[in-house]
Amino acid sequence: MNGAQAYQAALRALTTQHGDALALAREAARADATLIAAHQLEAWLLLASRDLRDFQAARRMSDRLAGKVMSAREALHAEALVAAATGDYAAAARLLDRITAEHPHDLVALMMAHVFDYYLGDAAALLTRSSRVLAYWSGSDPAYHAVLSLHAFALEESGDYAAAESTARRALELEPLDVRAHHVVTHVLEMQGRAEEGLRWMGARSALWKGAGAAATHLWWHTALHQLELGRVRLALEVYDRRLQGRALSEMIDASALLWRLHLGGHDLGGRFAALAVRWARFAEDAHCAFNDLHAMMAFVGARRWDYAERLLQAQAWRAAAPRGANHEMTKRVGLPASRALLAYGREDYAEAEALLRALPPVAHLIGGSHAQRDVLQLTRAAAALRRTTMKAA
Length: 394
Fold this sequence. Notes:
By secondary structure, this protein is mainly α. It is about 75% helix and about 0% strand.
């Protein structure tokens, strides 16, 4: 493929989450050094990974692009890349919104702004943007399904479940491989307690997730949550053992989130936490993303690896004390106290765990992720309260 063909293939992979968009963007950039959009897409995809090492690589790429001849739109992308690379996701999203205001068909700007608002837990911004942009798209646009999927997720996170489900199903009529649309429907079914229906939905469509990588892993995580909702612990663990063994950050986040929920329920997890903690160990001192840190702490506490847990707390304390990027404030206000709460829970100091979680500020949702992911904090607080009460009664 030439550069333009590889770039279009990368966009296709991005919109369906099938194939390796990052590898295709790199192929496009190698094939045509003058194709600024391909270089920028590579940087955007690195920034979207939540991995500190990818973040640093994207920053270097952004620096190398400085001074290149660019169009006005590419220059705005470049400015947004710098903002994101310095940790200011909100500023990056605002700059990307300037692009979509003038170029509502700019899929990269639309999808990256969506990613950053998701990381910031800003459902209102997700819905405002997708509602505005959707008016410029129609069924004759090849990527219309992708815009519908983004809008459907914004509707779901805003609590409009009926509209979210119908919009996602419409997207799937246009593109059955659209993993984001699958994701929205299972979110709706989970939020409405329709677990049996959720399992039927996922089971009938799981063959369509082949080639979807970490996105498929996340759908399997949702499948396990449906099993847990129905009390089928053994089947949830089967999903973990067969599907949640990846080493990408998003895959480990899903693994931690499932095991921690099982841990709160008092279930025997064998050596699963120990193995997961080893996979998380190389991220223990990153303190790059409070959402990552929270899930790393789940693995460390579940495995009783107090050494890893203390390394993580020290890194978070440093981040909270030395302002560097958007994660400073979120680590200080939410990430660090929430991690301390998980550690207190693991050490059976349930009163301390409950107190720390109860004291989290109203902006705790800005740690990022979806409602389905963030509810783990409330589940932990409820479990701590129950165990504290049980210990007092004993």
